[in-house]
Amino acid sequence: MIIKAIDWKLIGTCNLRCLHCYGPPKTERALPTENLRVLIEIFKELECKLIVLTGGEPLLVKDIDEIMRLLKAKGITVALSTNTSYFFEHGEAINECVSSLNIPLDGSTVEIHSHSRLDEKSFHSFWEVLQYYKNNPDKKPRMLRVGTVYSAANHGDFVAIAKLLQPFDDLIDTWKIYELIDYEFQPDLRKSIIHRREDFEKEMSNLLINTSLAPKIFLASAQARDKAYFMVNPKGQVVIPTDQNGMTFEVVIGDLLNMPAQLVAERWSQTINMEHYCLNHDTHYKKF
Predict the structure, then answer these.
(1) DSSP three-state, residue 148
(2) pTM above the 0.70 mark?
(3) Domains of the chain: which residue ranges?
(4) In CATH, what number does 5-284 get?
């Protein structure tokens, strides 16, 4: 079985403590580099075309530059989701290896952005990265995506965010807006930013008629992300984030380091919602 796209949560460790986090527990460390190399060989066996490196903060993984270069050498397209805090420390490897870069902005002001991220610095580093590509367009990856999580923390702010992004319209390929998902990790902390389901639809409808960025906006509702990923966690397990009565849990399908990869893939195919899986990776399929 061929797995076209894999979301690889390399690590739970992160310098931020975002309330909306869709990542593993912060106590989860990355596997040793030799195990990561083994997993890359397994991804190649599965004929994977695209790897999304995420976390936690993937740029905190030891030898992450080597990992990105190895993926590229294997002919696998590298996508990177980073909070931008360590972007410039890894700029050379990112420019060399990353075809798709996803960077987050969660508010039109420092205060709104930090409401859910509990951090102000990442607001500024986001704009530093955008300005870097504005000044160096030849270094821009083939796909530059802005990611924003919709929640009660930034409700009512999306037209204002769009106005800030418009001067960078020539750089931004996709603005992906994720509806907040109530995840099994840190649910008590997330309670303060849980939104009403109908508010997401209303605000997105208003946004789409009030910004010239509308053709580049991709809406990722909570419902459409149910059973939507071939996700590898920091232990090397394949998990499928699955909604269970309004709370999303990681359902473990198998262990790639201790089970035949094709067996894990077959189990995955019997559990996944293929329509959701294709929808959530569609922008990458079209680009690459």
Answers:
(1) strand
(2) yes
(3) 5-284
(4) 3.20.20.70
